[in-house]
From TrEMBL, chain A:
Cross-referenced CDD domains: TPP_PYR_DXS_TK_like
Organism per entry: Jingyaoa shaoxingensis
InterPro entries: PDH/Transketolase (IPR051157), THDP-binding (IPR029061), Transketo_C/PFOR_II (IPR009014), Transketolase-like_Pyr-bd (IPR005475), Transketolase_C (IPR033248)
Pfam families: Transket_pyr, Transketolase_C
Domain (Transketolase-like pyrimidine-binding): residue spans on this chain: 7-179
Protein name: Transketolase family protein
UniProtKB/TrEMBL annotation, chain B:
Cofactor: thiamine diphosphate
The protein, known as: Transketolase
Keywords assigned by UniProt, alphabetized: Metal-binding, Thiamine pyrophosphate, Transferase
Ranges where the Transketolase N-terminal domain occurs: 11-270
CDD domains, A to Z: TPP_TK
Pfam family, one: Transketolase_N
Family: Belongs to the transketolase family.
Length: 319, 277
């Protein structure tokens, strides 16, 4: 896998949404002026009325995210499948109440597809780093919350999102991340993808941290610790069955996420374990603190979101 | 569009007002003031202009109605029940557990509601989305939207106004219910809106200023909107009186969200009955 070039998951989204839009005229992009960096440029070029008299699948409402959510809701009531595209901070927090009232409450088929998830907009600083988005949106009824781990899974999950009715939040990375999956791997929204089985510790990760989980599992194997690795791309609806199996089969779980440790993947897994009344969960993620302008890898390191930290935690859990 | 006389529409609007007062009385909860100020133009839309089918509420070619000021839904419920979207007996369940008639309109509970609203400032963007879908699909339905003067203090209204202008949504007809009252006082006291008509005009809209209780003028203005295919979204800036038709509710902030008691309800019914022509 190390031979493959790194690629941002927003690129996977951009390529797949163009393909889907060409196949299905009801699929729309609703941009809010940052289409270029959210990779909707090709879609605009191929499917916008600006360039083609017979195409009309592209809308740009300008720097007006709240309105973008409302316009998308109105479009969805007329049978359209709008993908509202912006950065994760704005697509979750700026639009939050519009998502709740106009999209989730009426259960409309609107997808919020956001680049710049987690600390991947590294140099932009704290204002652009989305560390609360998935947690905030998972508390809204009817909402599905997804973060793919790499380029191919981003494509697969974008396609699955378009084919699944209902409000959905898709979170992509700005930065390039290693490729984990080949194009034949299948993903089901709401079902964890098991990368490898193991018996001593379960590492449950999502998004850009899945690669860290995979690497940590290799290091652990050399140390004689066998790890089950799950890509929990969907944190809502959470694959409770898969988490329950980790609790019952192994009992020692590490969660890893590029998100605040509060209310994201780690919290969701803890909820399951706590209700089962057994197992121990250690959360690795953003330590409830704002970021700063710094390299992406460095921001993860500051928060202990590293292969070394996962390995150390797994070793300690064996004692 | 149906052939209905102005006189008939006036009477219908009065009957809708009676249903509004009665349902809010029975619920002992709800928003009479704004429901009564919007009653005349909402009645004109539903009983004369809107191309709708109560037996097929989600018919894709229908005209749409968005109450951006969702709390005035009693007037919409009265119209929908009278048109046969659901039995009139449902009006007695307003705001009660299990009712299709929620305190603020829910599209998945009540047939005939085109989008759920209730959080102010959000409806116009949705209406713009519906109008845009109509343009994309080359359909000729209209989208009506009722916007409060108070809620025009929300920024999203103006974001949506931009969108409607950019996409030349001349199939979008907005009533600004200019009754100059909001919960904490007059709009001028709480947050002066300036001239909302001029504001919409500066956003590229075609604006028509009317007496929002003059049925003849309402119809003449809607006729004008239907005839005008100039690419400009339409704003009907309607001067209205909050609580219109019930003397003690008129121009009173106190009746924004308060239900009448038995005597008040009876007096309102008496006054409204006398207004039938």
């Amino acid at each position: 896998m190390s031979e493959l070039k790194k690629i941002a998951t927003r690129d996977g989204f951009g390529e797949e949404i163009l393909k889907l839009g060409l196949e299905n005229p009801e699929i729309l992009i609703v941009d809010a002026d940052i289409g270029k960096s959210c990779k909707t440029g090709a879609f605009r070029k191929e499917l916008s009325a600006e360039y083609h008299d017979d195409k009309n699948q592209y809308v740009n409402v300008g720097i007006a995210e709240q309105n973008a959510a409302g316009v998308a809701a109105g479009l969805a009531t007329c049978g359209k499948i709008p993908f509202v595209v912006t950065y994760a901070v704005f697509g979750s927090l700026r639009m939050c109440e519009m998502i709740r009232q106009q999209i989730c409450y009426p259960n409309l088929n609107v997808k919020i597809a956001c680049s710049h998830g987690g600390v991947t907009p590294a140099n932009d600083g704290a204002s652009h780093q989305a560390i609360e988005d998935m947690g905030v949106l998972r508390t809204i009824p009817n909402m599905t919350v997804v973060m793919p781990a790499d380029y191919n899974s981003a494509k697969k999950l974008t396609k699955a999102a378009a084919e699944t009715y209902g409000p959905m939040y898709l979170r992509f990375t700005r930065d390039a991340v290693p490729q984990i999956y080949d194009e034949n791997v299948e993903f089901v929204i709401g079902k964890a993808h098991q990368i490898q089985d193991g018996k001593d510790v379960a590492i449950i990760a999502n998004g850009d941290t899945v690669r860290l989980a995979v690497e940590a599992a290799k290091v652990l194997e050399e140390k004689g610790i066998s790890a089950r690795v799950l890509d929990m791309h969907t944190i809502k609806p959470l694959d409770v069955e898969a988490v329950t199996a980790c609790v019952n089969d192994i009992g020692k779980i590490i969660t890893v996420e590029d998100h605040n440790i509060l209310n994201g993947l780690g919290s969701a897994v803890c909820e399951v374990a706590a209700e089962l009344g057994k197992g121990i969960v250690k959360r690795i993620g953003i330590q409830d603190q704002f970021g700063q302008s710094a390299p992406y890898e460095r921001l993860l390191e500051i928060n202990g979101v590293t292969v070394e930290e996962i390995v150390k935690t797994a070793e300690e859990m064996q004692k | 569009m149906r052939e209905v006389s102005v006189k008939e529409l006036k009477n219908t609007a009065t009957q809708m007002r009676m249903k509004v007062v009665d349902m809010i009385y029975k619920a002992q909860s709800g928003h009479p003031g704004g429901s009564l100020s919007a009653a005349d133009f909402v009645t004109a839309c539903y009983f004369k202009y809107m191309n709708i089918d109560p037996k097929n509420p989600r018919w894709e070619d229908r005209d749409r109605m968005v109450l951006s000021k969702g709390h005035v839904c009693p007037i919409q419920y009265a119209c929908l029940a009278t048109l046969g979207y659901f039995p009139e007996s449902e009006l007695d369940t307003l705001r009660k557990e299990g009712s299709m008639l929620q305190g603020h309109p829910s599209m998945n509970k009540c047939p005939g509601i085109d989008i759920s609203t209730g959080s102010l400032g959000q409806g116009l963007a949705c209406a713009a989305g519906m109008a845009l879908a109509g343009k994309m699909d080359k359909k000729d339905y209209k989208v009506f939207c009722v916007v409060g003067d108070g809620e025009s203090q929300e920024g999203e209204i103006w974001e949506a106004a931009n969108t409607a202008h950019k996409y030349e949504l001349d199939n979008l007809i907005v009533f600004v219910d200019f009754n100059n009252l909001q919960i904490d006082g007059t709009c001028d006291q709480v947050m002066p809106n300036g001239d909302l008509g001029e504001k919409f005009k500066s956003f590229g809209w075609e604006v028509m200023e009317i007496d929002g209780h003059d049925m003849e003028e309402i119809c003449a203005t809607l006729d004008k909107c239907y005839a005008s295919k100039n690419g400009k979204p339409k704003c009907i800036y309607a001067h209205t009186i909050k609580g219109k038709g019930v003397s003690y509710m008129e121009n009173s902030c106190a009746w924004h969200g308060v239900a009448p008691n038995k005597e008040e309800r009876d007096q309102a019914m008496e006054e409204l009955t006398a207004q039938l022509v």
